[in-house]
């Protein structure tokens, strides 16, 4: 039973990563009709929304694209910064979607920001406490580890509406700005949906792990 469980929590993220890489590889070879580079897409959408103060930078790494709310900067990986593809436009627009959320003080994004310290603590200390609790048969220690982990899981769950909302904003922006044509909407959405799968997979695995530990804790307290 445990072998099946561990196979599932390993396979879910791997499957999501394969979907993302497959979609990105395919649509990074499809040039957009506007022929705009990812950096140009990001700049146009930012300017259209009055976000002239938000910068755009090239960053190293594969699919390392992100929005930094502290420095108000959209960072695009080299392929997407310079690329003219549908995938580059989709990802650039998605990251700008986060900048728009930040400007509008989108509730879920603000909530996620408040959870960052809790998530960091959960990621760093939860498993240490869990292992001590399990191997030393200390239910209180295990419970503390579960509580820390619950904070990290909550962060993962709150991330989902933030990412889906950013993708929805991205689609609206690239269509209204004429960056993609109507016949490119399906391809653009495939890139955005594939990227969202990684967050869904991460959240699903986190919830499964939390439930497993709760079951272990329940069994331990019954034995006591």
Automatic annotation (TrEMBL):
Residue spans crossing the bilayer: 115-135, 142-162, 191-214
Protein's UniProt name: Zn-dependent protease
UniProt KW keywords: Hydrolase, Membrane, Protease, Transmembrane, Transmembrane helix
Gene Ontology biological-process entries: proteolysis
Pfam family, one: Zn_peptidase_2
Coiled-coil residue windows: none
InterPro entries documented for this protein: Zn_peptidase_2
Keyword field contains Membrane: yes
Alphabetized GO MF terms: peptidase activity
Lineage: Bacteria, Bacillati, Bacillota, Bacilli, Bacillales
């Amino acid at each position: 039973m445990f072998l099946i469980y561990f196979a599932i929590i390993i396979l879910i993220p791997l499957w999501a990563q394969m979907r993302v890489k497959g979609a990105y590889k395919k649509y990074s070879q499809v040039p957009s009709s506007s022929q705009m580079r990812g950096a140009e897409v990001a700049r146009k959408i930012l300017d259209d929304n009055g976000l002239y103060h938000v910068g755009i930078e090239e960053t190293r790494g594969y699919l390392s694209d992100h929005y930094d709310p502290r420095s108000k900067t959209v960072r695009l990986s080299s392929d997407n910064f310079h690329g003219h593809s549908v995938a580059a436009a989709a990802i650039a627009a998605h990251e700008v979607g986060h900048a728009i959320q930040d400007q509008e003080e989108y509730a879920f994004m603000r909530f996620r920001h408040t959870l960052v310290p809790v998530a960091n603590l959960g990621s760093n200390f939860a498993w240490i406490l869990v292992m001590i609790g399990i191997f030393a048969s200390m239910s209180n220690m295990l419970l503390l580890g579960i509580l820390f982990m619950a904070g990290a899981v909550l962060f993962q769950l709150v991330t989902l509406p933030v990412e889906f909302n950013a993708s929805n904003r991205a689609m609206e922006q690239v269509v209204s700005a004429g960056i993609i044509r109507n016949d490119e909407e399906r391809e653009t959405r495939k890139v955005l949906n594939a990227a969202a799968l990684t967050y869904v997979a991460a959240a699903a695995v986190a919830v499964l792990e939390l439930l497993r530990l709760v079951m272990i804790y329940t069994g331990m307290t019954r034995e006591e």
